Amino acid sequence: MKTFFKKAIKPLFILTVAASLVSCLDKSDRIKSDVQSSGSKVTKIESAKDLKGMKIGYCSPSLDAPYYQALFTSIKENTEINGMEFISADGQGDINKQIAAVEDLITKGVDALLLNPKDPMALVAVTKVAKAAGIPVFIIDSSIDPSAEIVTTIQSNNLANGELAGAWVAKKFGNKKMKIALLSGNAGNPVGLTRKQGLLQGITEEQLRTLGYINLNVATQMYTEWTYAGGLKAMEDVLVAHPDINVVITESDVCVLGAIKAIAQAGKTDDILIVAGADGQKEAIKYIMDTDFYGCTAMNSPVQIGRNSVECAIQYINGKRDFPLKSYTAPLLITKENAAQYYNPKALF
C-alpha cells in the first residue's frame, strides 16, 4: 500500500470569505472561528425579559453521528447558561418518530422550537401546528419546504462553501483532466443538493475563468446515507466500476471518511484527491494536516450554529420579528495551510 504521506503540496487556494449574506445576529463579528472548543462555546445573551422558566425545545433527526451530538451539546449548553430549560427529542433516524417527537415538544408547551428536519416536506404540517399554538419554529442545519411556518433557517452557507472547495480543486488540477466520483449523503436531501451545486459551480466557474472552457467529468454518484460505513461501501463500488478515478468530491466529510479505508486498501492514496464541501470534522482536518490526499474541506460548525439558534430564539422572545428567511454562518475553506488553526483533538466534532 502506498504511503499516506507525500511531499507537501503548496496550497493554491486558501481564504476565508467574509459573509455578505444577512444573519439573524445583530453583530456579525460574533461569528468567529471558535470551533476549537471541546464542546460548545456558550454565550450569555443579553435579554430584557427574564428567561428563567422558559423552555427551548430541540428535535434532532438522529443523534447517531458526531455532528448531531455536537449540535445537541451546543444548543443544550447555550440554553442552560441563559437560565432556560432545555427539552430535547430524538427522531432516531425515522421520519414518523421525528414527527411524533415534535408533536410531543409542542404538547409540552416550549417557548421556542428548534428543529433539524430529516425530510423537507414531512415536517411542514407540524410547523403549522406549532404556529397555531403560538410557538415560533427555527429550522437549524438543514432545510424545510417554503410552505412551512417558520421564523428563519439557521445554517452554514452550503452553496458558498461548496464553491470554495470546487474552485480549489479546479485550480489544483489546472488543465489536467479530472475523472470525478461524487459521494453524496442521501437522495433529495436539500442541504446535500446545495453543497453539490456549490462544488460543481466552483469547478466550472474556475475553469471558465482560467481555462476558458469546462472540462467536467463526473463518472458516477454514489449515496452514503451520511455514514462511515456507507462511504466505505460506496467507494468500494466506485473503485470496481471506475478504477481510474482521480478525484472524489463529497457533500460532507462523513461521506468520505469511511471511503478512505477503501482507497488505502486499493493502494490509491497517491492517485485520488479528496475534496469535501463540508463540514470541518476533526478527523478530516487531521488528514488535511498530515497527508496530501485529503485536499480541503469547508466549515459547518455545530458550535456556531447551536449558539446562533439559541440567540435567535432569545431575540424572538424579546420581540424581534424582522428575521431574514435564512441566516448563515460565514463560509470558510480549510486546507493544509490553515488546518492547524481549526484542529482540536478534544473537540466533539
From TrEMBL:
<comment type="similarity">
    <text>Belongs to the bacterial solute-binding protein 2 family.</text>
</comment>
<dbReference type="InterPro" id="IPR025997">
    <property type="entry name" value="SBP_2_dom"/>
</dbReference>
<feature type="domain" description="Periplasmic binding protein">
    <location>
        <begin position="56"/>
        <end position="320"/>
    </location>
</feature>
<keyword id="KW-0732">Signal</keyword>
<protein>
    <submittedName>
        <fullName>Substrate-binding domain-containing protein</fullName>
    </submittedName>
</protein>
<dbReference type="Pfam" id="PF13407">
    <property type="entry name" value="Peripla_BP_4"/>
</dbReference>
<dbReference type="InterPro" id="IPR028082">
    <property type="entry name" value="Peripla_BP_I"/>
</dbReference>
